[in-house]
Structures are given as C-alpha cells and as structure tokens.
C-alpha cells in the first residue's frame, strides 16, 4: 500500500517535472524589440567629437535604421555609429533578464565589414551622469554579412571594451560585463575600417529571455522534489509511530488478556477443588495438602488429627423442610465450623452431609476438644426454617500407618458416635485396641 502510493507520487512528480520543463521551453518568454518605429531617440555619432572628419547621416525608413557615413582617416581610430537612447542615463533598464540579443543588420562598404554592438551600462562608481563616455562599454564585434539575415548572440558573449577600461582607468572589480542599468545601445563601424562610404542598415534589435530565470525555475523544480521527499519521510515516520503505538497497544491488550486468563484459570482451578454449595474443599482439593501433612508426620513427627463429621438425621430435615432448607443447613454448618477452626485447618466436604476436618499440628485431645466445641455450637445455633441440627464426630490422630487406615479409623469413631446415639464426639487413638 505504502510502496504503491510512493510509486504513484513519483510518477506524478516525474510527469509534473517533464510538463513544467516543456512549458518552460515554450512559454514564459519575454522580449524587447527595437526598430525604426520604436519610440526611442536615435542619434548619429562620428569621430568629429574626437577631432576627426568622418560624417554621418541617420534615417529611419520602413526598411530599417539606415546609417550612412563617409569615413575620413583624419583621426587615429575613425568611426561612425548611431546611438539609441533607452532612458535617462542613471535610470537604465535591466537587460540582464534577457539571455540573447538578435540583430538583423547589413553592411555596405569597402574593406572590413565588421560592426560593433555596444550595450552601455550605468554604475555610480565609474559613470558621470553628464558624460555618456563613462557608461560601461559591453561590446561584441562581428561581420553581419556572413549571416543570411539575423544573428542571435548570447549576452554572455559580450565583453567590456579594453580601450574603455584603460581610458577610464576602471578598477579590476568592474572588468566584467554588466547589463543591469542600460540606458544606451550603439551600433558602430568595426575596428579595422577603410576610408570611404559605409552604409549600415539595421532592421531589428531584439532581446529575448525568460520571465523566470532558468536557475530560479530549476531550483523550484528541485524544491518540489525535496518537499515531496520531506512530506513522504514525515508521513512514513508518522505511519511508523502509529504502527508502533498500535503494536504497543496490542501487546498491552494481550498482556491484560493473559492476566485475565490466568485469573480465570486460577478461578477454575479453585472451583475444581471446592464444593460449590458450601465453599469447603472437595476430595480433590484436599489430596495434595493431606499428602504434605502426612509427609510431615513421617519426617518431622508433627501431630496430625482429623475430625469426621456427619449431620444427624439429615434425610429427615430434607424430607420435612425440603431440599433447599437442607442445602442452607449445609452452608450454615460449613460457616460455623470454619469460624471455629485455625488458619491451617481444612474443611472438606467428603460427600453428602459428611465433612472431614483436617487439623495439622494438632494432638488428638486438641482435636477432640475442637469437635466438642463445634458440637456445642451447633446445638445453640439458629438454623434455617427453625430446624434443630446436631452432628456426630469421629476423631483420631495419625499413627505409623497409611492415610487410608488413618481415615478409616476416624470413620469408625464416627460410626461409633452414631451408634451410641448421635450428637456426640468419639475419639480413637492411633491404636484403639491398644
Ligand atoms: N439438601 C441436601 N441434601 C443432601 C445433600 N447431599 C446429601 N443429602 C441428603 O442427605 C441425606 C443423608 O441421609 P442418610 O445417609 O440416611 O443419613 P441421615 O439421615 O443424616 O442419618 P444419620 O446419618 O444416620 O444420622 C440423604 O437424604 C441425602 O439425599 C445435599 O447436598 N443437599
């Protein structure tokens, strides 16, 4: 699921990048077009200002800007040119946003047929606003007739004229071309000029560039990729956190479930060892602990006694008062007995209305006294439905014998108590015959 959304995201991102690059190549263009119809000031200039004798005329025709000169070698470096004033000298326009300049020009004349194109830049460090000559000369020189019509020149091909640098003694940090504050463009004859008539026709000068610079655009695309990567990583991190917390939650739930199961199984274990009616132990519930007590008798010689108890005429209680009352009597009986016993003693429901009281660390006399105490208590206790309840007791202490013999002797004592008239305690020593 996660890898599917990642590949979808990547696919969208690639599509977005390709479409953006395509759109960038074919749109976002910006241009500055200058021709004879442009609303700028055009002006011819010759070496006359330097003491030369070259003359020039400039006409704006439907065919273009036409500069006609008569070159006279009266000055060391004769020239003629025309200037296009784009703005006031210190309020130039920013040409640096364009990448190329396209010139549509023709040259007519003898000798070298090269022309120079100047982009003149203002900078407060080296420009005197009252002197056009102090505008930086960013120049390129080429032969227009070598090209069928127009020629496109990247702005990065321009250089700062060395004669301008040396004439104005420009510091090193300003040697590089600068197109940020351009107020004048000039088209001039080339450096190797012959005497005689010269004609330069310029149909159009066009600067082309992108509304958003390429570096800014590519940085934007990279930014989108980085943003995608960050968003993806953050969402992945969030998902991992959610997974972790749900795993933790599951572990906690599992732990509490295990705990509940443990409690439940303990409950069942207890239930399996208890008589549900009276809460006394059942035979299974006493087996292990009786075995341990018997071990102690053999190994440590600690006394162990048991009291066998059987309610008298219980069948009659059931018959006269009903089975439910009988049940209640059994419950009350167990409660009364337990109330008189010590902590280590165990009350076992041996079957029906028969109970066994196991008394560890107890001599026969103590057990007999306890039995007598119970017997007396039953006599004076209040019973359900006002019934009268008595009980017979057979008591004995364990000797060097088996558990079976031990219990059988207590049963014998109980039998004796019953046969002697019930509601009494009969105690047998470990060897009753002896
Ligand atoms: N209400 C009730 N009666 C039970 C339960 N277990 C056994 N009994 C009844 O207890 C009675 C025991 O009767 P008997 O064995 O004849 O003994 P008894 O009537 O107490 O007479 P003696 O023991 O000779 O005094 C039977 O009627 C059983 O049905 C029980 O859990 N609840």
From TrEMBL:
Domain of life: Bacteria
Record has Transmembrane as a keyword: yes
Stored InterPro entries: Diguanylate_Cyclase, Galactose-bd-like_sf, GGDEF_dom, Nucleotide_cyclase, Rev_trsase/Diguanyl_cyclase
Pfam entry (one): GGDEF
Enzyme Commission number(s) of this protein: 2.7.7.65
Domain GGDEF span(s) in chain numbering: 302-430
TM annotation in the entry: 216-234
UniProt keyword annotations, A-Z: Membrane, Transmembrane, Transmembrane helix
Catalytic activity as recorded in UniProt: 2 GTP = 3',3'-c-di-GMP + 2 diphosphate
NCBIfam families in the cross-refs: GGDEF
Protein name as catalogued: diguanylate cyclase
Organism classification: Bacteria, Pseudomonadati, Pseudomonadota, Gammaproteobacteria, Alteromonadales
